[in-house]
Amino acid sequence: MPGTLYVVSTPIGNLADITLRAIETLKTADLIAAEDTRHTNILLEKYGIKTHMTSYFEYNKIQKGDYLLKLLNEGKSVALVSDAGTPGISDPGYNIIRLCIDNGVPVVPIPGPSGIIAALTISGKPTNEFTFAGFLSPKPIKRKNQLRKLHDEKRTIILYESVHRIEKLLGDILEVYGDTEVVVAREVTKKFEEIRREKVSLSLEHFKAHKPKGEFIVII
Question: What angle is formed at CA 203 by the lines to CA 201 and CA 207, rounded to 5 degrees?
């Protein structure tokens, strides 16, 4: 019988935001496949988890996916974790999950923190229907075209963005949507968490004047 791939949600910032089941799974798995082993090691040390780790990230996902599948077919259990939150959301976790499904290996979710849901629930925007578009293109023309396609979307829109492109994204939203109200969530659950609910022009002015740090979630 094959082993099991456990898709384990880990904290998005505050290390206390982890479930008892996630801790137990990380302790008892034969191997942890981590997007960044150095980052995940901080979490493991806090909870006294000694399980061996291997890296699994965007640039080794094909080679390492075959290696993990081999272990799973030998009956080993693997816990998949990302840098933060739930694996498979805007990270290479999808590939190993799909590989396991296609090869008859059981995949079990260990639910927990999600930046998307954390930001949405405190945004004040409608939560009954929403669409997640992840990271838009780093290329200006393509990014604006993506925003234009989303313009007629009636549901709440959730985007991810990096610190390096947040000003560009806000500027493009202003151009495509006009001065609409947005929610910009920065460093959610961390010490310097910042939630701004205001016109996009005000957020753009703020982050031009105060150079941002951290990861961003933008809700339209």
Answer: 120
Strands 5-8 and 107-110: parallel
What are the residue ranges spanned by the domains of the chain?
5-110, 115-219
The torsion angles phi and psi of 202, rounded to 5 degrees, stand at -70, -40
Please, what sign has the CA dihedral across residues 174, 176, 179, 183? negative
Q: What is the pTM of this model?
A: 0.90
Instruction: Report whether 130 contacts 114 (CB < 8 A).
Output: no
Cα distance between residue 156 and residue 125, in whole Å:
7
What class has domain 5-110? alpha beta
Report how far apart the first and last C-alpha atoms of the chain are (Å, whole number). Answer: 47
Residue-wise pLDDT for 40-66, tens only, equals 999 999 999 999 999 999 999 999 999
Q: What's the per-residue H, E or C state across 27-86?
A: HHCCEEEECCHHHHHHHHHHCCCCCCEEECCCCCHHHHHHHHHHHHHCCCCEEEECCCEC
Alpha carbons 35 and 32: distance in angstroms, whole number: 10
- Domain 115-219 CATH class label: alpha beta
Q: What are phi and psi of 12, to 5 degrees?
A: -90, -5
Quote the CA–CA distance of 48 and 158 in Å, as a whole number: 35
